[in-house]
């Protein structure tokens, strides 16, 4: 019943948040899009999402949320480190963006009730993005799988990188599988979403998204095995199929994961380890260690950091790292305390996926899809809204029967 009371425009506001987190950099598109235009669209989507959420929640009713509180506190080191403009004026712009992002989530938290409403919004909007990727591959296969990215699938209509597409596909697949196992959707609807998303995931050759999907599903389905026969059957068949595939297709799987790279390049995570070592070895003042250097583009010396924890340490310091770690501790602890259910399984999947992906992807310290994934997890773990209090009805006193002769009016 909670899902029926949620206004339809809440889903629209959530979709606008998804658009805002798409980013403005990526592969070359079929129709060249200026970066200024892309940034105008993404920032306009955030402003519109905040306005729409405010219009839907004019009384500013919000649900208590430790996740949103920690996200709001993350603004403190962000603003302090960005105020001296060491990272440029863009740092304050990113702080404003993070504030609007958190504010929109606070306004939408009014409808967080532990149900799967926001899971469906999440799947629906990210599947729309995946459909645009598939459309771009059909329109221009050469632009969708360029040599610059080693033949991996990219966004040809909107600039999306292979890791982004892989992330969206993995999240859509994982949540759809869990809704199917929990009896919240039918097989036909799930297949229409899972099958094409799985094809796109394989075409991206994204190792992080694939491992995140497998680990997240293992944790989530494991939480359902004690109460769901369907989850036990799925888990057993999945383990059997994985064992057979590991033996029969060992060489093919190894080639897919290596993506033509050497063993040395694979071992140092495609050069990421060199950037991480240089970042940790760089001299920093006490203030930079505590508060960071300000919100930036998640790079160090012009190279992407590709690690959420190091990116947060670089931009928001040790305080930021502590707050992000507290997010996982709080969400994970609440998930463990909840009784087994499809909603809890979806939350565990999202927490597990974001935790694994944080090792090779940045985004936990700024407005990003990862913060949206965790927001969905927080909505799933929220306690149901209390039912409105019903005042006890006081029975009316019995009416006294008046004789007919006493009903006549008195005559003077």
Structure description:
It is a single chain. Helix 7 (117-139) crosses helix 9 and helix 17 (308-337) packs antiparallel against helix 18. The longest helix has 30 residues, at 308-337. The chain has 412 residues and is mostly helical. The protein has a two-stranded antiparallel sheet with strand order 1-2. The model has no long low-confidence stretch (mean pLDDT 86). Helix content is 65%, strand content 1%.
Helix/strand structural class = mainly alpha
- Amino- and carboxy-terminal Cα gap: 65 Å
Strand order of the largest sheet: 1-2
Bin the strand percentage: under 5%
The total strand number stands at 2
Major beta-sheet overview: 2 strands, antiparallel
Can you tell me the residue ranges where pLDDT is under 50 for at least 5 consecutive residues? none
Q: Provide the residue-averaged pLDDT.
A: 86
Radius of gyration: 26 Å
Q: State the helicity in percent bands.
A: 55-70%
From the spread of the alpha carbons, the general shape counts as globular
How would you spell out the order of helices and strands?
HHHHHHHHHHHHHHHHEEHHHH
Please tally the helical runs, counting DSSP H or I stretches of 4 or more residues.
20
Task: Describe the structure concisely for a colleague.
The chain is an all-alpha fold.
Which key phrases capture this entry?
single chain, 412 residues, mainly alpha, 20 helices, 2 strands, globular
Task: Give the helix/strand layout.
Blueprint: H1 2-5, H2 8-20, H3 35-56, H4 66-73, H5 75-82, H6 89-108, H7 117-139, H8 141-144, H9 162-181, H10 187-204, H11 207-222, H12 229-248, H13 250-258, H14 263-267, H15 272-281, H16 286-291, E1 299-300, E2 303-304, H17 308-337, H18 342-357, H19 369-381, H20 404-407
Antiparallel strand pairs: 1-2
Helix pairs in contact: 2-3, 2-7, 3-6, 4-17, 5-6, 7-9, 9-10, 9-11, 9-18, 11-18, 17-18, 18-19
């Amino acid at each position: 019943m909670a899902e029926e009371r949620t206004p339809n425009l809440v889903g629209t506001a959530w979709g606008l948040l998804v658009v805002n987190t798409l980013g403005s950099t990526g592969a070359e598109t079929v129709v060249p899009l200026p970066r200024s235009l892309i940034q105008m669209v993404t920032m306009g989507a955030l402003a519109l999402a905040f306005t729409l959420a405010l219009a839907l929640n004019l009384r500013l009713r919000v649900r208590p949320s430790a996740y949103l509180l920690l996200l709001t506190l993350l603004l403190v080191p962000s603003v302090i480190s960005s105020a001296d403009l060491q990272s440029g004026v863009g740092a304050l712009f990113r702080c404003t963006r993070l504030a609007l992002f958190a504010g929109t989530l606070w306004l939408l938290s009014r409808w967080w009730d532990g149900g799967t409403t926001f899971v469906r919004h999440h799947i629906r909007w990210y599947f729309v993005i995946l459909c645009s990727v598939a459309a771009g591959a059909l329109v221009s296969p050469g632009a969708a799988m360029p040599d610059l990215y080693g033949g991996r699938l990219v966004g040809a209509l909107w600039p999306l990188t292979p890791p982004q597409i892989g992330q969206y596909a993995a999240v859509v697949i994982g949540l759809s599988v869990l809704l199917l196992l929990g009896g919240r959707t039918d097989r036909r609807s799930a297949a229409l979403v899972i099958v094409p998303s799985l094809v796109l995931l394989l075409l991206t050759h994204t190792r992080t998204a694939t491992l995140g999907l497998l680990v997240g599903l293992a944790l989530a389905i494991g939480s359902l095995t004690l109460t769901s026969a369907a989850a036990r059957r799925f888990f057993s068949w999945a383990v059997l199929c994985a064992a057979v595939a590991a033996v029969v297709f060992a060489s093919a799987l190894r080639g897919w994961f290596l993506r033509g790279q050497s063993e040395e390049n694979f071992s140092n995570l495609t050069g990421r380890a060199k950037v991480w070592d240089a970042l940790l070895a760089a001299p920093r003042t006490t203030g930079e260690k505590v508060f960071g250097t300000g919100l930036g583009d998640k790079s160090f010396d012009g190279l992407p950091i590709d690690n959420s924890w190091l990116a947060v340490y670089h931009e928001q310091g040790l305080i930021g790292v502590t707050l992000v770690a507290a997010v996982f501790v709080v969400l994970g602890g609440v998930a463990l305390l909840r009784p087994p259910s499809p909603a809890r399984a979806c939350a565990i999947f999202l927490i597990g996926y974001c935790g694994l992906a944080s090792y090779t992807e940045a985004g936990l310290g700024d407005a990003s899809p990862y913060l949206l994934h965790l927001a969905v997890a927080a909505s799933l773990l929220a306690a149901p809204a209390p039912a409105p209090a019903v005042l006890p009805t006081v029975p009316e006193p019995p009416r006294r029967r008046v004789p007919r002769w006493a009903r006549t009016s008195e005559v003077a």
